[in-house]
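As the work plan foresaw, the team has encoded backbone shapes as discrete tokens. One protein thus recorded appears below exactly as we store it.

:::
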Amino acid sequence: MRTRAMWCLALVILLTSALQARVVRVEVASRADLQDSKPFGDAGAYQRITGRIYFAIDPDNVHNRQIVDLDKSERNAQGEVEFSADFYLLRPKDISKGNGAVLFEVSNRGGKGILRIVNGADPSQEFGDGFLMRQGYTVAWVGWEYDVADQNQNLRLYAPLARQIVGATNRAVPPRPGVDRPVPGGVIRGPIQGLVRSDFTVSEKRDTMPLGHIMLGPGGGKSYPVDDPGNPQNVLTVRDTREAPRQVIPRGQWNFKDQHFVQLTDGFTPGKIYEVVYTAKDPVVAGVGMAGVRDFLSYLKHDPQAVAPVQRAYAVGISQSGRYLRHFLYQDFNADEQGRQVMDGVIAHVAGAGRGSFNHRFAQPSRDAQPMSSVFYPTDLFPFTDLPETDGQSGATGGLLDAPKESHTAPKIFFTNTSYEYWGRAASLIHTSPDGKKDIALGPNVRAYFLAGLQHFSGAFPPQKTANNIDYTAQQRHNPNPIQWFWRALITDMDRWVKDGKLPPASVHPKVAQGTLVPLAKWSFPKIPGVHLPHEYNLAYHLDFGPQWKEGIVTSEPPKVGKPFGVLIPQSDADGNDLGGVRLPELQVPLATYTGWNLRDPSIGAPDQRASFLGSFIPFPKTLEDRRKSGDPRRSVAERYHSREQYMEQFEQAARRLIQQRFLLEEDLTAVLARGRREWDEVVGQR
């Protein structure tokens, strides 16, 4: 009887734990040892576990009320809304050998990128040098996005639809507490309709385009199908730039194909921005993707029987998923249904000042904000700073972290941005006033690091002008500066901050007061022969999505565009390299100019516009004679360094300074120096 009582007690504890975490079931599809049980340092062997996780959340819980249209979802007999998501994780086989923390990557459009970036993994070496495993991290991903493309084993969210109650049926059904209004028998639900918008720019002539977001080839997102192709609200327009006036294309010249494509009789012209607004129905309750991440991490932290139990949760997000983390915090998702803090540390990388289309009616999470597409979506929205600020134009006051501070769930945060985000993602607004006239202090648990001289994602080395996708054909070679070693140091700094209370490096970013952060009119850049300069950069605007936007419902598509905020860019030095940031040895001991912008190649249209995500690599002249012949104002390599050995001596000194500042790890010095030698050989040649 005693044994039976103990088993009953254990079962009750397990069920209660699972219930509190809102994970009701974990379905393991596969479990396998990595690399034939090869040990990763003291953490030992690792396992890969994949499967599907099932959730149930209470629409009446105060921590779920921010989920738009959750109250319009079907409920189970307990009055809860059910949904599920794919998951994928790597954990020490003996969990006691781990470091007690999960490094959770918010999946970017269903993918998994952190291993490649941090471990240096490539297709031939899936786990690279095993850095994260050697540190003992559980590394995890879960699907949070419903509109990911059907490719590459993307992780997916299986979300409910929102449908409005239109009547009742006499058919007897179990009572469902908390429905919109009492009805006898069952509930009859009807479709919710609304407007959806899609925009795109082609790089070669074509007559058909998908309505879903296109990025890096097919790796964008799915679209809502067209509900009524003949609806007079369906409109197709074309314009030259983001701010240019739209020209309506007559309805007889275009049509929809298979509910997911738009066709133009004469074909789409490269370098133009096309935008189609159309009617759709049955919006997905996209916001449950945030609840799923929240509850998955809560489950790992609070259920001792979890598939990978941990004590600490660090979330990292890159680009779209960095914006996701800013949105996640802003809308108070870091408190689970019991009000417990979920994420202990957050690294939101290359998110700029943005949030995203993650929790509103007819949301398209895959949409971002690029120079020639995904324009004027709900991305760069006030407030931008972590502490409260006041917008002088609208009179609104607020801060990004107001809600988590109120719920006592604010984590420790790194906001990291490269040079590209100051040109393309309004990054300056995270540390200036909305009008851009003064610097704004950050909170004590927030750091902002400007990683100067990098593009949105590291380009290939040796650098090139094009990539596998024609859309990324540019006028200059892509910026190849590596992000890997910064990432490894930042993750280490975050762990020490959360676990041991060891403060990370102070924030490093350009400032108005120091003249390192300026408007475009005051930007100074050397006149390098053959290099065309950008005449614009992405601004954040006051956008009006209609009177119901506060409830998460868009009624104005496209939105009404008001005045811009005061977006600024980093000032350049005499070489054209950005000031005011954390500088790799490549910028401290330069061989080239590394920018956060690159213009589109004339072959793909709009050559006066910036290319999405790209920076430029513009090597210095090799000799004084080369410089004089070309008229390049930058000093040549030979004028700076007498030899490869002298260059490498200075390069190593710069790397060691970064190690002292804790922006690089001592163990990475050898690899950093090897990269420096390769860069010399690329620019100067082996001598």
Notes: Confidence is low (pLDDT under 50) at residues 1-20, 175-185. Residues 311-545+567-687 form one domain. The first strand starts at residue 23 and ends at 33. The longest helix spans residues 2-21.
